[in-house]
Amino acid sequence: MSLIVQKFGGTSVKDAKRLMNVANIVTQKYKEGNDVVVVVSAQGDTTDDLIEKAAEINSNPSKREMDMLLSSGEQISASLLAMAIQKLGCPSVSLTGWQAGFSTTSVHTSARIKDVNPERIRSELDSKKIVVVTGFQGLSKYDDITTLGRGGSDTSAVAIAAAMHADLCQIYTDVEGVFTADPRKVPNAKKLKEISYDEMLELATLGAQVLNNRSVEMAKKYNIELEVLSSLTNKPGTIVKEKVKMEKMLISGVAKDTDVARVSITRIPDQPGIAFKLFSSLAAKNINVDVILQSIGRGDDTKDIAFTVPKDKGKEALKTVEDFANNYDAGEVQFDDNVAKISIVGAGMESHAGVAAKMFEALFEQQINIRMISTSEIKVSVIIAKDDADKAVSAIHNKFFPKAT
Length: 405
Ligand code: ASP
Ligand code: MG
Description:
The protein folds into two domains: about 5-175, Carbamate kinase (3-Layer(aba) Sandwich), CATH 3.40.1160.10; about 245-405, VC0802-like, CATH 3.30.2130.10. Helix 1 (about 15-30) crosses helix 3, helix 6 (about 195-205) runs antiparallel to helix 7 (about 215-220) and helix 10 packs across helix 11 (about 390-400). It has an eight-stranded mixed sheet with strand order 3-6-2-1-9-11-12-10, sandwiched between helices. A four-stranded antiparallel sheet has the order 13-18-20-19, with helices on both faces. A four-stranded antiparallel sheet has the order 15-16-14-17, with helices on one face. Helices cover about 35% and strands about 25% of the residues. It has eleven helices and 20 strands. It has about 400 residues and is an alpha/beta fold. It starts with a strand and ends in a 5-residue tail after the last helix.
């Protein structure tokens, strides 16, 4: 007998038909003799709808009340799923985050899980029930309901799996697993059998929206093997784990992120402390800087710096840099949010030369100009014009995954 944690996302539980489908998947595992804990997200667009409802009343609602409101979405799907399971003749109970023992920090709308005390879950399992837990929520030390930030249910599932030493943690979604590129855009994208935590983390932060990145961080920390799979087809998904075997693969995926803006400043003094001052003034405003490019100093002791920030911080970053430019009597400040970041990710590139060159060749063949480049051990990213983004992803994907294979 094994302990299995299964998580189902919003599209998998969006209506009565889908809930019955989930109940079938869950009860099948139960009937095979396993203990089953199920974590659910809110149905379909419920969370967005609730956010809209709040906005109709107050454009700046209190975060505590937002958590009270948003946590209700998961309560609906959990109770409905328990009813669906009962209808199929199996005993089931639904639990809210606090009943399930989730204690979190008290940062409303983006709380972090501190601890899961699985006593109640354990005793319900001991009385042979399928336990359905609301994802995305917990309780603060002030006994207030908190939520974990958008997409937080994945993390709830991993936290339960870690706290209870589960044998398997399955994340059911509406795609069949993790692909080498977005399968809706790149028709010959392939499903990966396995991917490492580190690669998945890069892809998750690069906008391959299959798993919430905090859940991957937690899975890595507690060494919980995850399986990402579809609730709609009965096919094996992608396993996310520490080490994967596929040495032949240079890269495991190509990702596109259009949530970036580029800010540049010319003719700043070429002297120690300039980068420090510029980037600490951005950090003070909580603006995360990603790709950074600095030019070689000119003969006149000035240099240029360009960097990218998340699009929604673009205007604030621009203002900060303009103030900086005034202080230092610098040259021009430019802003561009018509850009995209295209990245390749793969543990294979650590031990192979020429991976970046291959990516650049694919871009050259499409006459796509590279504006910025950044690399890490398992990732190469380029900033290009947004209009070229989809073309770039296909070209790079074809280079690394030729159609014939
Ligand atoms: N319902 C929440 C959201 O939409 C949490 C989740 O889906 O994981 O963000
Ligand atoms: Mg959702």
